[in-house]
Design brief:
Length: 195
Amino acid sequence: MSKQAAVLLAPGFEEAEAFIIIDILNRLHVKVTTVACHDVREVPSYHAVPVVADVLLAGLDHEFDAVVIPGGPEGTVNLAANPLVTEFIRRHDEAGKWIAPICSAAARVLGGNHLLKGRRYTCSGDLYKAVTDGVYSSEDVVEDGNLISGKGLGKSFEFAFQLAWRLTDDTETADFQAEHIYFDHWRSWQGINAS
């Protein structure tokens, strides 16, 4: 059975991060569901690109193998302020599912709601300075338990490949796809130092 990932979208989400991750997950045969975390399925991105999500978060009771949380200054503020988002992430985290924030999402969404639980993470800029329940690392991609975090847009491919590979355990396809798209900065044998 194919693995499944939910990508959480709120107004102001960083569209390039979201779509790079969606693309790589699909290449490794992970079923992706985009989830609108406000009252309508159309979600404007950071650069005002309208995106129609697959489903609304309200009433969604399906369990996923991973919860992906794209960045974006406004997007992560909106996600962090939504109690349904916090509960959705908490439920998946407690079930041992992959929690995958990138850019400002680890600090704002997880750190802002005490969901890091002492784990190592990375994020963009100096947002880590306001986080009290996690351990910041300056690495591009950090894995600690079921948490995989990425620094930001420029590291989206490394982040996406690491997540897709962990979800599927399909080294052959992961390495083939990285080579296929000429992404020379990641291969499964390099790995990420996990805690």
